[in-house]
């Protein structure tokens, strides 16, 4: 009977997996019921539905049987020549037979050709044909034929005959070299058996990382897709020398002629380690966290996946360009011309072409500083070593190495939170160049009155019409703007997303860039000149009348989360104080991308009268001070200003993170805008910094102090400007900066290549943005 022969066939097919007829038959019955006696569904794909159903039962018997199938008896009686693209490790009794439920324990047998289909598979399908000889060793043969099955299973042409299902290849979050359409790393129409252009076999790994020969409890795990398979490569007998059996190593890269890249990370672990295959997503996350922890300076959007993509990009590039004259030239320059750097300290940085806007032209780039200079000389092997270094850090059996690495990678000086809990978010401080510590000052998140300044926040001063007591929730989402939008022409200065509105911001930027075109107030009796004992006949130099933002305040009925309360909620972006490489001392940078119009921080310090500040400056001539700000945005609104009403903020002794913001002439990326928070009285207001454009993570945050570098009479001696802006007002000094027709890079002493590479890429990004 046709049915009986089909049952017999199915049982025979399952026998290969060591599953007995008694187990198969009831499951088969169920399936036939489910599929309405349609055998096609059961037979399709080498009885995959049946295999699934059997294993889905989680029948302990199945497991027992599967284990039994590894017994010597089973091996001799049941082992069959197989065309399965899976292969044995050939270790005899304790081998990781693909017939078992899996020695690793969690996986079911991979889909494979049944014995009955061997003939068909042998001609149609296996890219690598696996044969088992008497000693159960395995030989590999190339067969230049393909089947839909293999296309489905994305066989990796250059190496192991490992079968991965389409799903297994799909990464959890993202896919290496993903195809937009279907998110698979390799296209379906990939010509199979395309030999790789090249395969990188890394330099021998440190002994602790090598796969150990011999005992069967040692195997190499290969993370080829989502890391869902472990195979043991140790005892493969290779007939065809073109097919490389994986060296015991950590990383391999291979590319096909079409440009597809495969990266394999290989790790050996003792079987008893309790190791379970993690998802690739989890692995990447751990490495990224580790990277961020160890290197601190890493782009917060850094992802290992992108790094690997870069590796692939470089690998392809390196593989396709045979002679790179420019690089050779650069290498020569490197050895002769590195200031203060030993040749063996240098590494070549592989800059992804997207950073170079696809031009790959290095001629216009300039040297950054004596500490950080550049070479762009792609060399994927060195890049790979960087990755290996990351990989070493992950080895749980190599704690000493890991600790050593961490010691090496840490910055020379690091403070976890300079705010000591004053701000909502920690603000770290990092010095990668020396052990210079932060200046002595007291971190405060709100300005404080130092004594003589006349600053009073009085509820009665807030007129009924200047606030919105009847509002609730978010004023910016109300249909009709409330009274608090009055100051900014009936429209709130902020968008509902908390950014300064584009038109308002542009106005402020234009006033800042071209103050002469905007309204100034000229005092007859200028408090600034009074404080400096400079009585000048006639009017003063003038004060720019600035546009104010008015936020909702105490008397308003809205929520603290109201969109018109931005500055008063404090710093919300991740910031870091760092030692600038250009010699400007400490600087402030963002650790996250910020859109145009974002609030960064306000200038916080001691609220002092002009008069007091001048006296302070006189007293502390030697003191390294910050630049105090003058709160003169609305000095024209009252007649003659009393000394105690003419205020400044001095962050020298008490201040917040803004005291670290460096100056940049004209094209700084932040602008200061006066903000009313507590009082309509414009003697005192908040001076808040907003981004003038999109600012990328790790970019330095700067503002134009408005210094007149030619004013030798200014109470605070101007510094030599190192802003490197092409609009620098201190050009005499800027021009003396050396310009080079090439870039080269010196690895800072005691730093790893990964550290150096990250720094280099970040700096290059900055350069490309700036210049
Ligand atoms: C407000 S502080 C900025 C933080 C400062 N870099 C530090 O290390 O504390 C101002 C001082 O920084 C330095 N500075 C700021 N901008 C600079 C620039 N463009 N070029 C050189 N030095 C700068 C000057 O010494 C200035 O007096």
UniProtKB/TrEMBL annotation:
Residue stretches of biased makeup (Polar residues): 79-100
Domain (SET) ranges: 573-706
GO CC annotations on file: chromosome; nucleus
Organism this protein belongs to: Escallonia herrerae
UniProt-annotated location(s): Chromosome; Nucleus
Pfam families per record: Pre-SET (PF05033), SET (PF00856), WIYLD (PF10440)
Keyword Nucleus tagged: yes
PANTHER family: HISTONE-LYSINE N-METHYLTRANSFERASE SUVR4, INACTIVE HISTONE-LYSINE N-METHYLTRANSFERASE SUVR1-RELATED
Protein name: SET domain-containing protein
Single GO term (MF): histone methyltransferase activity
Chain intervals with Basic and acidic residues compositional bias: 62-78
């Amino acid at each position: 009977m046709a049915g009986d022969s089909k049952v017999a066939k199915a049982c025979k097919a399952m026998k290969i997996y060591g599953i007995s007829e008694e187990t198969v038959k009831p499951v088969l019955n169920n399936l036939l019921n489910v599929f309405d006696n349609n055998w096609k569904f059961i037979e399709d794909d080498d009885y995959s539905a049946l295999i699934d159903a059997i294993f889905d039962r989680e029948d302990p018997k199945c497991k027992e049987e599967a284990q039994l199938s590894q017994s010597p008896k089973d091996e001799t009686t049941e082992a069959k020549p197989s065309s399965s693209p899976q292969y044995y490790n050939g270790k005899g009794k304790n081998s990781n037979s693909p017939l078992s439920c899996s020695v690793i324990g969690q996986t079911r047998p991979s889909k494979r050709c049944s014995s009955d289909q061997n003939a068909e598979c042998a001609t149609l399908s296996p890219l690598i044909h696996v044969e088992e000889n008497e000693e159960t060793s395995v030989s590999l043969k190339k067969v230049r034929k393909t089947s839909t099955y293999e296309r489905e299973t994305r066989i990796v042409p250059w190496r192991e005959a490992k079968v991965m299902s389409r799903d297994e290849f799909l990464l959890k979050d993202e896919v290496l070299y993903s195809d937009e359409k279907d998110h698979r790393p390799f296209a379906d129409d990939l010509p199979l058996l395309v030999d790789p252009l090249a395969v990188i076999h890394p330099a021998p790994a440190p002994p602790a990382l090598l796969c150990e020969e011999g005992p069967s409890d040692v195997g190499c795990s290969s993370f080829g897709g989502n890391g869902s398979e472990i195979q043991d490569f140790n005892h493969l007998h290779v007939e065809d020398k073109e097919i490389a059996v994986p060296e015991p190593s950590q990383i391999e890269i291979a590319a096909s002629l079409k440009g597809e890249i495969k990266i394999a990370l290989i790790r050996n672990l003792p079987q008893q380690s309790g190791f379970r295959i993690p998802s690739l997503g989890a692995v990447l996350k751990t490495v990224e966290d580790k990277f961020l922890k160890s290197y601190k300076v890493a782009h917060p959007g850094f992802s290992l996946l992108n790094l690997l993509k870069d590796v692939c990009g470089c690998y392809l590039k390196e593989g396709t360009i045979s002679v790179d004259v420019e690089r050779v030239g650069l290498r020569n320059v490197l050895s002769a011309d590195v200031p203060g750097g030993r040749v063996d300290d240098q590494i070549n940085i592989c800059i992804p072409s997207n950073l170079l806007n696809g031009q790959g032209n290095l001629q216009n780039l300039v040297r950054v500083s004596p500490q950080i200079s550049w070479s762009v000389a792609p060399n994927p092997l060195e890049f790979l070593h960087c990755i290996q270094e990351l990989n070493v850090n992950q080895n749980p059996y190599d704690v000493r190495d890991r600790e050593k690495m961490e010691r090496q990678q840490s910055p020379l000086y690091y403070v976890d939170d300079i705010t000591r809990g004053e701000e909502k978010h920690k603000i770290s401080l990092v010095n990668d160049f020396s052990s210079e510590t932060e200046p002595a000052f007291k971190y405060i998140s709100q300005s404080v009155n130092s004594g003589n300044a006349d600053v009073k926040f009085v509820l009665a001063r807030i007129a009924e019409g200047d606030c919105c007591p009847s509002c609730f929730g978010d004023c910016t989402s109300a249909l009709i703007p409330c009274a608090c939008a009055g100051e900014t022409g009936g429209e709130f200065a902020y968008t509902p997303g908390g950014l300064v509105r584009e038109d308002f911001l542009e106005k402020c930027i234009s006033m800042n860039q071209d103050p002469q075109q905007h309204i100034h107030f000229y005092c007859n009796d200028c408090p600034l000149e009074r404080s400096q004992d400079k009585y000048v006949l006639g009017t003063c130099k003038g004060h720019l009348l600035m546009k104010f933002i008015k936020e909702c305040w105490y008397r308003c009925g809205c929520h603290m989360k109201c969109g018109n309360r931005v500055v008063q909620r404090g710093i919300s972006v991740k910031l870091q104080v760092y030692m600038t490489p250009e010699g400007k001392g400490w600087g402030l940078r963002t650790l996250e991308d910020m859109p145009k119009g974002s609030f960064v921080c306000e200038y916080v310090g001691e609220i002092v009268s002009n008069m007091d500040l001048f006296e302070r400056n006189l007293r502390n001539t030697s003191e390294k001070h910050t630049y105090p700000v003058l709160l003169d945005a609305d000095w024209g609104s009252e007649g003659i200003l009393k000394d105690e009403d003419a205020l400044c903020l001095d962050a020298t002794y008490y201040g917040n993170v803004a005291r670290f913001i460096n100056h940049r002439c004209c094209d700084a990326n932040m602008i200061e805008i006066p903000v009313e928070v507590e009082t309509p009285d414009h003697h005192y207001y908040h001076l808040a910094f907003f981004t003038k454009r999109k600012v990328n993570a790790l970019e330095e945050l700067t503002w134009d102090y408005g210094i007149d570098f030619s004013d030798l009479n200014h109470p605070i001696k101007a510094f030599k400007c190192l802003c490197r802006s092409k609009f620098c007002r201190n050009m005499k000094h800027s021009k003396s900066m050396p310009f080079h027709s090439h870039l080269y890079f010196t690895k800072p002493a005691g730093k790893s290549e990964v550290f150096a590479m990250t720094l280099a890429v970040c700096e290059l990004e900055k350069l490309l943005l700036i210049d």
